[in-house]
Amino acid sequence: MRNKMTPVYILSGFLGSGKTTLLTRLLQHWKQEGLKPAVVMNEIGEVNIDSLAAGADVPTSELLSGCVCCTIRADFAAELGMLLQRDRPDVIVVEATGAANPMEILDGVAEASLYLNIELQQMITVVDTPHLLHLHREQRAKTYRLMQEQIRCANVLILNKTDRLSQDELSEVTEIVEKWNRSAAAFEAVRCHVDLEPMLSAVSRSEQSAAVPEGAVDDEIMNTPGRSFKGGAASHDTHAHVMSYTHHLQGPLDSRKFEAWIRELPRDIYRAKGILTFQDTASRYLFQYAFRETDYTRLPQEVELRDVLVFIGEQFDRTALKQQLQKLSEPT
Ligand SMILES: Nc1nc2c(ncn2[C@@H]2O[C@H](COP(=O)(O)OP(=O)(O)OP(=O)(O)O)[C@@H](O)[C@H]2O)c(=O)[nH]1
Predict the structure, then answer these.
(1) Residues in contact with 244: Cβ distance below 8 Å, sequence separation at least 6, in sequence order
(2) Centroid of ligand 1 to alpha carbon of 134 (angstroms)
């Protein structure tokens, strides 16, 4: 039997937006619930000051040699694996450096979930609202684009530092964020003071929304506590949020059927990877899919990994994917 999956939360947000403030709150919350959290942190620079915030009783793993998205391939999975084995946490938070590209981090966690019993729960982005408004007015391209990416990727948005905005400015910022990501559950906050339970359950609700038929999605999310955006159910003109789906395969697949199925994958799924066994070949493979190209690398026989596929894309139908993969696993 497979061990239970440890949920992983990615905490993203621009430098100084309030990630550590939120992390401290989350850790307190989980500890009060009797859970054991662990943290993976990365900082640009030599010393990680934020690790002090986690407290001595929270296992912390640090990637100090640069940004998590650059060290991610080798170190990240190894660090997570070590943390899981050594500390057996109930929940893991990856605090991404404020300058990190969230897509790379998402990709890294997806990669690690091929080898480890972890499940990416959601991406929480803390938005420094006065800073965003300032950049929006100045149109400073690079930083602005990174903030935009961080907002687009989120399933939960904390619109932080609202104490430094007037009501009009808050409306302006909300409108900007809404244009980029209408799907996430959004919470206005001062010092990341949000009701954590509704925030954490809003995470799963927005994930489930992918299975809800078009048109019902926004309705569902509009009803999540803390949702502050205006707007209607019919607005699907903006970017949907990025999501991932992990599927554990029950048995070997027919390679030709799998190939044919991959060719028909919806365009909304832009990345997939996995470990696969085929009914009609002796080897096992590491499978990669990017920009509609597939790649298979033969794995050594002794590799002890379960068969799994991870998909990353925008607002795709996870239920349909699951059903199709179950069908592909049926013996022919
Ligand atoms: N005025 C105001 N200040 C805040 C708020 N939230 C956080 N801060 C302050 O903003 C600063 C940065 O907060 P952190 O939680 O350290 O932010 P961070 O995102 O972890 O920062 P980096 O580690 O640099 O990426 C601290 O001085 C906080 O006290 C807020 O809602 N309003």
Answers:
(1) 106, 109, 110, 120, 310, 311, 312, 313
(2) 17
Give pLDDT, residue 109. Answer: 82
Establish whether residue 13 lines the binding site of ligand 1, counting it when its CB lies within 6 angstroms of any ligand atom.
yes
The predicted pLDDT at position 176 comes to: 93
Which residue, judged by its Cα, is nearest atom 25 of ligand 1? 15
With a 6 Å cutoff on the Cβ, whether 193 touches ligand 1 is no
Superfamily assignment of 243-329 in CATH? Answer: CobW-like, C-terminal domain (3.30.1220.10)
DSSP β-bridge partners for residue 244? 312
Topology classification of domain 6-240: Rossmann fold (3.40.50)
Q: Which of 76, 66, 64 is nearest to 8 (CA)?
A: 76
| Average pLDDT estimate for 95-114 | 76
Q: How far apart are CA 211 and CA 217, in angstroms?
A: 9
* Strand-strand pairing, 37-42 and 60-63: parallel
0.90 exceeded by the pTM? no
Q: Which atom of ligand 1 is nearest to the CA of 17?
A: 19
- CA nearest to 100, candidates 83, 135, 136, 76: 76
Ligand 1 atom, smallest distance to 13 CA: 19
> From CA 156, how far away is CA 126, in angstroms rounded?
9
163 lines ligand 1 (CB under 6 A): yes
Instruction: Give nearest CA residue, ligand 1 atom 5.
Output: 191
pLDDT digits (tens, 9 = 90+) for 9-60: 999 888 788 988 999 999 999 999 999 999 887 654 333 434 445 566 777 7
Which of 147, 258, 189 lies closest to 22, judged by CA? 189
Least confident of 159-163, 167-171, 207-211: 207-211
Q: Domain ranges in the chain?
A: 6-240, 243-329
Separation of CA 23 and ligand 1 centre (Å): 11
- ipTM score of complex: 0.97
99 C-alpha to ligand 1 centroid (Å): 15
pLDDT on residue 302: 67
pLDDT tens per residue, range 180-207: 888 888 999 999 999 998 888 765 444 4
